[in-house]
Specification:
179 residues; alpha+beta; 4-stranded antiparallel β-sheet; 4-stranded mixed β-sheet; 4 helices; elongated
């Protein structure tokens, strides 16, 4: 019974040039770090201790920095709330926002006639949880927080998510999706 009241969806950002550049720079940084450590050990004649520390310190560096360049986005719909989390390297989860579905003014596909409403909303906060804005199932949700801040959420909708969104806020615009 619990499974019927929860919906989760995870999406990875599309591999765009900026994303590839960040990953490439991180890998180059790891290699430069290891080579610098190696050459410092050679010049100080501490070759054996340095050779033992290179793999360990490089692994520690990768462990703490790789979540910054390997990101996934997850949204969950639980008990009338949409919980948005950013996941780094599959292990570091950070909650970005929690939005009450009843506070959403409109939920619509980001295409055709609905784009104008999204662009005219003038939000104070924009949250993008899509792989790319060109994805066929990109939806947006216009919402207002308890403090009166206006926001727009872009997400990739599934049929199950749309059913749950309609259940908790029936005054929304919903159309068919791929999944």
């Amino acid at each position: 019974m619990e499974e019927q009241n929860i919906c989760e969806y995870v999406v990875s950002p599309a591999k765009q040039p900026a994303w590839r550049l960040k990953r490439l720079l991180a890998i180059v940084g790891y290699v430069v770090y290891a080579l610098t450590f190696f050459f410092v050990g050679m010049t100080l004649r501490l070759f054996v201790p340095i050779m033992a520390l290179i793999p360990l310190t490089t692994w520690i560096l990768v462990w703490f920095t790789w979540p910054l360049v390997s990101i996934e986005y997850e949204y969950s719909i639980v008990s009338g709330n949409m919980i948005l989390c950013r996941i780094g390297a599959g292990r570091v989860r950070r909650r970005v926002a929690e939005i009450h579905i009843k506070d959403m003014h409109a939920i619509a596909p980001y295409d055709g006639d609905y784009i104008k409403a999204a662009e005219q909303y003038a939000p104070e906060q924009t949250i993008d949880f899509t792989s790319s804005m060109q994805s066929p199932d990109v939806y947006y949700a216009l919402y207002e927080t308890d403090k009166g801040r206006r926001g727009i959420l872009y997400f990739e909708a599934t049929t199950r998510a749309l059913k749950m969104l309609r259940y908790y806020n029936s005054g929304t615009v919903i159309t068919a999706v791929r999944y």
